[in-house]
Write a structure and sequence with these properties.
6 copies of one chain form a homohexamer.
Chain A (H helix, E strand, L loop, with lengths): L2 H16 L1 H4 L15 H15 L14 H28 L8 H16 L1 H17 L7 H7 L1 H17 L5 H13 L2 E2 L4 E2 L4 E3 L5 E2 L4 E2 L4 E3 L3 E3 L20 E2 L4 E2 L4 E3 L3 E2 L4 E2 L4 E2 L8 E2 L7
């Protein structure tokens, strides 16, 4: 088989792969100026947000109290510009192929949403500060607040979740999910951006944690690696497809602790101060203050 | 201790580390022009393959139906060139240090294997389209096909697996394993490239999933995070080393569902339409249509 | 809302975010020349260490036995320089904001610690060689030692742990934890740098493994994905905060095997040659040679 | 002087440098979405144009005649997109700070100009092919057409000029000048984009060549390094500033040769087939077919 | 000749090249932490300085008057840090191999010099503004001040010179020369950092201009491409080497114009308002208001 | 004109530009694995060569005498590998489109040439050391040998020339010319790689210098900026094209000095110890020890 044959195979594969029947449903056609949201840019956005929220720990690390305003100013302006563009992409994506969407008015809307997000960053920082305290207090191996902020995966995952959740509340499509999946890939912690989570939340180690879209979590909750807050089953519509939007994940009230690899399924309530042991499967309500554990292993 | 002492310590460590006795077994000696397969290039190859299979979602996002042939053409040619080089590296690696392998004939063979892979890409795309449908239909939180393609870890892991599996079927050494490990690192989903998996396959959340080398999975199968399809134990040879190549992982027939953190071990069969509950340990056949669950937790 | 309004929102958010009350506890102020340890540089350090320990598999892949000294020499010197700088950053971080720390004497100390680390690299390589053998012998799917070194996540995670553990023994602050968290993100395997682990250690698949700070692991131990060696509970001090430094994680003696998703909690001992089955919860000592498994699932 | 003093000096300098009086006339204020044309992007645009015009010599060098359409297609689309954005920036720059310019209609205009430029590229290539022939025929040291295309500075400078000249004819502001200055920096050849230059034009060596804005050059002209086609003097307006737009540079008719370091000034005509010797100063018309040289040196 | 022979040739060349006799005089030995000034970092320093002096034209181009302080603040702090490090390298370089120079006190000195440079930047900007005006007024082809700032090589070369000259006045070794050579490479204009140049200075086109170390240039001077302000000859010391530091370059008084390729040599004075024609060789004083030109060419 | 019209214009331009008639003579078709020499890689090769010849001044600047062998070893091996590949590309380019050239034997030849080049590097370094001395001794503004090596354009241009000249002597096609054009672009000094140049050669400032292909230059020669050693005219063949390979450039004997902007044309000889003044045009032999200057300017 000589090189020209290779070229022949290539051009034939290209022809097949370029037939519209072949790529139907797997192809995103753009009109001019309407790219998809970019994972690379969203990654830069998250880095800027971390640098603004935790100055000196992320981003330019030689910041000091006299020059902090410069750095926060520049980072905030960059964040605004990048986020406006990404939100515009998200809005265009959600509008579908037939709308005439990348107009001046869509651009204006994207800018407004981006500015609203930024106006909520001081509050975002306040809540994340409670999560940092919870992580530090909850881990005897933590040697300093600085160690927690700079290397705990929980802080990364929860930061991304809280940022994504704000964007989702503002009605921004697609982007919140990409942001939480970025943290999922980085930390193994999968929190759906639509979940509702109170203050002083922490996750220890974290790999394998799943928190579903309709989960509700109170304040001072702590969960360990491998914990699932999932759906037990979900009603199907007439076409046999799952009905979207039904509350189907657990509620964890204040001060609940869930140990590693526990699986809690369905719209059940784990009552205030309850403790759920590791490696167990919970599909019914757990009363306030209860403590449930796995049956003993056989030797 | 002055700087010159540091240099002295360094040069002594270098001498020790450069003794052949020290690096024996940990050193890969290359002959000219025979580098190892490169993780960085394989990463680029995967990005090109994704851009070809899902045009507009990966790679150049401003593609449209009039110019799609240009983009698929360029990406396919790049893929062919990069893949030919990597396959050549893989062939040289597998031939061991004594062969005279980087000859024109090896180069020709690498080109032929690369072209064969590319000729299978239309079929690869067809099967991946079924996986996308399965992921969308199986998740009430999925808002669009586009969201599934662009951010679901299952699609990333299954794409890499299906690409790696094709390469393994063509007899390409080492590279298939590197490709699935790349997805393992990105998604926490570890699918051995030798596993056999049917159409409409999906994995929800996915972190911690392990699918062993001799697993066989039918059509329309769904598994959740933390599920293991593993080996129970494996026979050792006379030197106490595991005998390679024995069928030792489970068979999952069509329409099986396995919930989170379940562990299924050994060459057993989970029958058609069966459901395996979460957090359980299964080492025996499960009949067609059966439903097995964990014993109740103690309160 | 016109662009100037957006600017107004931005400058207001910047003002709020730059108030010292807002960033208190979340801000790391540096004095001149005292940056935080850098994740990017530590990543480069790990790549250099891998290239030195496994020549030809990582780093410059066209190395051969005549030129190996050049490559190990250059990489070792680079490693020394980068590591000295990072250790200096770590020492400054640990000294807190009031000390006058980036002096010539701190710089000298950082250089000395870096040189000591390098003098231990031949021994580090010797131990990692045993881990490679253990991974190869323990996995029937492993086709060559080369495959194990170049793509097994266990080797990546254990390399980082062993490097971090040496640094921790030298008294280097913060950096060991960042290094193990880097492997955690890459592999899903979370080994605390303070854990003590013997030779011929291996982890199969690995996602979700957690090995706590005071764990002690003997020689020839093998664990599977999702295994936790954790703390059961920990005593609190008068302020309700966990007391740091108490032995609270398990001891695994020589030749122990722990199957997937098992959870072993507290300062208990898993005796020599014992086997712990998957998906179980162990909080009491397991005798030498014992084999414990999960109770049977309900059908 | 302690670090805090340095910070004090810095913040004071920042305050002075941020006063509007200080930066007046040196500051380009942008409204949202109106960046300046970017040197980096224009550089990418030139590389794309070279790759389209001289396929295989620039850009992807492994092109062949079967796949050339793919490459030219992708490069042309990229060029269109990048150029549209840069033209938009140029239009906004030229409109000044008070217009409301980045509207949908400006965007449409930029796209139209970019498309018009692309429709002229086949003709651009045809003319550049004549310049390549002239360079090859005019230099005994040239060993092949390929050598001329891939490394002669004249080809780089003339390509940039011809591209810039087309854009200038389309009315695109600022960008043509940036493009010729890029070639000036790369080759030392400074051709104003408004000059008019015929076919089969070549420049030997080229460093120091200056061709002014109102120069007119016929076909088959050759000039050497250090040649200036400049203005002798220019009339001033009532404010003592030069009046813009007056024809003030030389006309070189067909087949003229100008040797190194000659200086030709003012709106004079160098007649057909004339030769101008090196290191001389010409401020009056030169007749058709004449040959002028420097007076003899003194020994 | 087989690959091993190549390796043999290589190792032999390495041995020869590593002999101290071979590299004597061409080798710069560093002590720890004393690198040479870095061209790459100095390039970044120049970009920062341009972004501070001409905000919106260089650096972040989306700056506006409300956020300008943030950008200038961040850029100034970055400039201070990078410049301090480079000055330290320069001081160590100048101290020679035997001093014990990278001490805390040298670091303090470098910081102080860097801060002093920054405190002079407002004045630097004021003078550069006069050069911009001169370039715009002196060129009928200039369409706007913005065009002059963003693409005229004269502005780049004069900016680098003025920055380098300030550093030289502060006593910083080596770095000023590197900075002017960077502009020389970019623009073909070679201004020695020790030259003294007044306000409203401009250079048209510029390639080939040379301004020697002891030149003195008044206000409102304009020179064209290819002009040399050089030394005629220089006295040698007893070893036949040129005596350093003697005034040996021309003085150009206010309002002098020098046309292209003129060569002015020796410590002579070109009087106020004088004009020097192109392509001539001047080695004697030119009176105030005089006009000298080349003898007529022969036809 | 709507977006689809733009697409229409694009696809039409692509069709025209992809017609073989349009790109004829401007297209370089490659067979598999036969790319053109790469400017980017040749740039890296030059940086490696500079780092080997002037250790500590270029490349890794923290080198010291104990570790110098490591650095030179690694750089030499890298240089060998990169240069072998580039020479192979050059050989394929020179063989034209019809040969079957990228065979194992061509690869072997490229390796041998690359090794031969490396074996000449010690001698290359010895000669360059004489050029450095000449530059230092010839310039009263030079403050140290280190300044000369690290920032004088003459050293850059002459290094590239000497490297290119060695490659040309070995019979390597195309690459020598690319290497000298790289220096031409960086420094404005254009030395043809075929010129023959003795020891202790220096060029002051250098912009605009041209040294033609058949020039011969003795030892201890010094030339200034803007000097041309060119051809006066060249005989044409029957097709009116210049006959290649005829000696047509000047001979400069030992100790000659040529001042700025002088133009010396034709196969003439400038005798030993002669001096040629600036801005003059020389087309006849200059006797040993003579001194020629420009006629006086008119006032």
């Amino acid at each position: 088989m000589d090189p020209l044959n290779f070229t022949h195979i290539l051009t034939q594969a290209v022809d097949e792969l370029s037939e519209s029947k072949s790529y139907q449903g797997l192809f995103h056609q753009h009109k001019d100026g309407e790219p998809l949201p970019s994972a690379r840019v969203l990654c830069e956005i998250i880095e800027l947000a971390r640098a603004i929220i935790f100055p000196g720990y992320f981003g330019n690390s030689t910041i000091n109290s006299r020059t902090i305003t410069y750095h926060i100013g520049v980072n905030t302006e960059k964040l605004f510009n990048l986020l406006s563009d990404q939100i515009l992409s998200g809005l265009c994506f959600a509008s579908g192929p037939d709308c005439d969407c990348c107009t001046d008015s869509k651009r204006e809307e994207a800018g407004r949403l981006s500015a609203q997000f930024i106006s909520r960053m001081p509050e975002l920082r306040r809540i994340l500060a409670t999560d940092v305290v919870a992580a530090y207090n909850g881990d005897p191996a933590a040697e300093s607040i600085g160690e927690v902020i700079s290397c705990y995966p929980a802080i990364k995952a929860i930061s991304n979740y809280r940022i994504a959740h704000e964007l989702l509340k503002l009605g921004v499509p697609l982007i919140p999910r990409i942001i939480t999946e970025m943290a999922h890939s980085e930390t193994g912690i999968d929190i759906h951006p639509a979940a509702k989570i109170g203050e002083y939340f922490t996750i220890d180690h974290g790999t394998g944690v799943v928190i579903g879209a309709t989960s509700i979590i109170g304040n001072h909750v702590k969960i360990y690696q491998g914990v699932t807050l999932g759906a037990k089953s979900f009603p199907l519509d007439d076409d046999g497809k799952p009905i979207k939007g039904i509350a189907r994940h657990p509620i964890l009230e204040d001060n609940v602790i869930v140990y590693s690899n526990a699986t809690i399924l369905g719209r059940i309530t784990i009552g205030k101060d309850a403790t759920v042991g590791g490696n167990i499967w919970v599909t019914e309500d757990v009363p306030v203050g209860a403590r449930i554990v796995q049956p003993t292993a056989k030797k």
